[in-house]
Design goal:
Largest sheet: 17 strands, antiparallel
CATH architecture of the largest domain: Single Sheet
Radius of gyration: 36 Å
Number of strands: 41
CATH superfamily of the largest domain: Histone H3 K4-specific methyltransferase SET7/9 N-terminal domain
Structural class: mainly beta
Length: about 775
């Protein structure tokens, strides 16, 4: 390949003058090519350093068609038409990124080869090479990091194409960045602009208004709020969905193609609330986009007579046949519009929590005859069409299956929203492991959800009573929800939509990524189950695995570690009755050291086995006393000691009750409420300490082991119960009390309860 060889930072390559188009491509090879997912993006900036637009994955055009992006598994290409670039566009910055993936670990150092090349072409001429650059020598490695934070580079600012006096030039930056998305380091892109020769740095330094520091991008399996994708600065209330597809025969019918689309609305439990399709486009809150007027066909002029033709030749079919004209050239900036709908979010059925959108060819020959399916979303909230904002143009190759896009509505006070706001994408496991942070976040959730539940109950009661609900009340309820958009791009099995009902319901109830075998795999997923329970956290191999939050629809929940979809390791669990367990789990049950805080304020601290108190432990009652002993399968047995500030009891226990010989030691000087004359004889520092023996007798029929306790309350089993002493008979020994040593309270050997708040107080 000819062209200039780029060898280092700061190198400048002058671009040909007045060319028709410029082409920049990033190419890579690797043994892991099937897992590689690198993205080349072109960002356009004004002279003030304001981000004008960008062309990249999910956003294929910029500068009104002057910049186009096209991606393939082997590389990405950005085509620039200089004559179409707006005069206010001062520079184009090219960034290559390794997309963020929880399924496979990759960076820009993963490929075996990685090159960035530039080409130019005059009108109707082939592309000619301008430059070539091997990016690998400019990437950091573990042995030779360019900076401490860039040992594993996720992105590189390759170069900037900027205006010179009367032409364009390219200046190479070759700067590695640790973030997987250029949207996270927009200020760094502006720094690159300030270093370009001839760039108006005065304007750049003075610019403040309209300059953004971060851009939210939407990749496959990721989700973002509708407002973040619209970038309008206002709430998104109405969106337009345009459907399109294309095949080999552009502008004509495609044989074997009878495309259909569906928009299926689901409630929080996964039940369908309504549906629209290409055959039935109207429903509550959803209207059809009018069909575009068909272009008028020009009447073809009659064929000219051939003066040399013999009489009667004009009647021959060969002579009358028209020569078939080639299809018009395709404009890559034009959306292949086939159909569309407008969704007014506030007018949807109130129970709607997600919309699953599909494009399929069940009635034809599958997606094989197509080259690509398309879905475009636009914020059309503003009445002025010039204020409509693009939210994304998603292309999906037919070779990978069908395309599903899922807008979902999420309560702004839900655990999912709160935890996403509190935890960064990369630090979620550490966030979940920080109990103090978890407590703070979830207590905030409880307050918001309590208010939301009360408002929902008010609306439900008025509706049931036949009373009209005021519009301001409805608006208040809608304001508590926030729509988000996630791009799935998952194949849809079956020969008809009905065959995929379970898959579609699963898509509505699961928000997250899938691995290569179509199993749920994500570091920050959300799943809603048929009983209304919700899980937020890590998934692997289609199971809850790692740190997560599980909320029970009837009340209560769990925050902590999972293994094979079961609670395992450290965690905090709130029971439906308000009790809280904090400690170790195994196989979904309490196992190891743990603390159980009962609703009445009493607490057990000790060891557990298979969900039951088992081994040494301490029970602290509501009067400040503590019971030390040994439990077996949830039952207190053998020697036990009960301490209060003014006395101590020692004895045997059977079936959680004291039985047989025992002793009481009383600290007279600590006796609360003692009359002053009765205490006048106490002169010593410790006063009189006396001990006396006795005997407890169990009532008839008592003594059998009670039912096992300690099962997790999420399975509707009664939680652990505290000891009870009703019906006992006590008889003092026939002897006088003895003196005894003073008692320490609380006992030094008694494990004290940790400070536990109601961590999972989520309605």
């Amino acid at each position: 390949m000819a062209g200039v060889e780029v060898n280092g930072q700061g190198q400048i390559v002058a671009l040909p003058f007045r060319v028709e188009k410029l082409s920049f491509d990033a190419k890579w090879t690797s043994e892991q090519a099937a897992q590689l997912d690198l993205d080349l993006t072109c960002c356009t900036f004004s002279a003030e350093g304001k981000l004008r637009s960008f062309a990249g994955p999910g956003h294929s055009t910029a500068e009104e068609g002057g910049v186009l992006h096209q991606g393939t598994p082997e590389g990405d290409t950005v085509t620039v038409y200089p004559s179409k670039i707006d005069p206010h566009c001062e520079a184009l910055v090219f960034v290559l990124s390794a997309s963020d993936s929880d399924v496979s670990t990759m960076s820009l150092t993963t490929p075996d080869t990685l090159h960035f090349n530039g080409y130019s072409a005059e009108l109707d001429a082939p592309l000619e090479p301008m430059f070539q650059c091997n990016l690998q020598p400019h990437l950091p490695t573990a042995e030779a990091p360019i900076a401490p934070s860039t040992a594993d580079s996720q992105s590189m600012i390759i170069c900037a194409m900027h205006r010179s006096t009367d032409s364009w030039v390219t200046t190479f930056s070759l700067l590695s960045q640790p973030s997987h998305s250029w949207g996270q380091f927009v200020p760094k892109l502006r720094t690159v602009l300030s270093q370009l020769p001839g760039f108006p740095v005065q304007k750049l330094a003075a610019a403040q208004e309209g300059v953004v520091d971060k851009v939210v991008l939407l990749r496959r399996f990721e989700d973002r709020t509708a407002e973040a994708l619209s970038c309008s600065g206002q709430a998104v209330q109405k969106v337009r969905l345009d459907f399109g597809w294309e095949g080999a025969l552009v502008g004509e019918g495609i044989e074997g193609v009878e495309m259909e689309w569906n928009a299926l609305c689901y409630d929080i439990t996964g039940e369908q609330t309504q549906a629209v399709s290409s055959k039935s486009k109207e429903a509550d809150g959803i209207t059809a986009v009018p069909d575009p007027p068909a272009p008028e066909e020009e009447e073809a002029p009659p064929p000219e007579a051939d003066p040399e033709a013999e009489e009667g030749d004009e009647l021959k079919p060969e002579a009358a046949a028209e020569e078939k004209l080639p299809a018009a050239a395709k404009n890559p900036d034009e959306f292949p519009q086939k159909d569309g709908i407008v969704i007014e979010l506030s007018a949807l059925p109130s129970a709607t929590r997600s919309i699953v959108i599909t494009i399929n060819n069940f009635a034809g020959e599958g997606l094989g005859p197509l080259t690509c399916a398309h879905l475009r979303l636009t914020d059309v909230t503003a009445a002025d069409a010039t204020q409509h904002k693009s939210m994304g143009w998603f292309r999906f190759p037919s070779s990978a299956g069908t395309h599903k896009d899922r807008p979902t509505v999420e309560s702004t006070g839900s655990a999912f929203s709160q935890w996403r706001a509190a935890a960064s994408n990369s630090d979620l496991p550490a966030f979940l492991a920080d109990i103090a942070v978890v407590r703070s976040a979830l207590l905030n959730i409880s307050k918001v959800q309590a208010a939301a539940n009360q408002l929902a109950k008010t609306i439900a009661d008025k509706t049931e009573a036949g009373e009209e609900v005021a519009e301001e009340v409805k608006a208040e309820e809608r304001a508590q929800w926030q729509w988000r958009l996630g791009c799935m791009g998952r194949p849809l099995p079956g020969a008809a939509l009905e065959d995929s009902a379970d898959d579609l319901k699963g898509i509505a109830n699961y928000e997250g990524r899938f691995d290569a075998t179509d199993k749920r795999h994500d570091q920050r997923a959300k799943a809603i189950y048929a009983n209304g329970d919700t899980y937020f956290g890590q998934y692997s191999d289609d199971r809850r695995q790692g740190m997560g939050l599980y909320l029970v629809a009837k009340g209560g929940g769990y925050a902590g570690s999972y293994a094979q979809s079961k609670r395992s390791g450290q965690g905090v669990m709130r029971m439906p009755d308000g009790a809280v367990y904090q400690g170790e789990f195994a196989g979904d049950k309490f196992e190891g050291q743990g603390q159980y805080e009962y609703v009445d304020g009493s607490t057990y601290v000790g060891t557990w086995k298979a969900g039951k108190k088992h081994g040494e432990g301490v029970y602290w009652d509501t009067k400040g006393g503590c019971l030390r002993g040994t439990w077996e399968n949830g039952i207190l047995k053998g020697q036990g000691t009960y301490d209060q500030p003014s006395y101590q009891f020692k004895g045997n226990f059977k079936a959680n009750l004291p039985e047989g010989e025992c002793s009481f030691t009383i600290c007279a000087h600590r006796t609360l409420g003692m009359p002053a004359p009765a205490a006048a004889h106490i002169m010593a520092d410790h006063g009189p300490i006396i001990t006396h023996k006795g005997n407890y007798t169990l009532p008839p029929g008592v003594g059998a082991d009670p039912p096992a306790d300690g099962e997790p309350a999420s399975e509707d089993v009664v939680p652990p119960a505290y000891p009870k002493y009703e019906g006992l008979a006590y008889k003092s020994a026939a002897q006088l009390p003895d003196e005894a040593e003073d008692l320490q309270f609380p006992p030094a050997s008694a494990a004290r309860p940790a400070v536990v708040a109601l961590l999972l107080a989520v309605a």
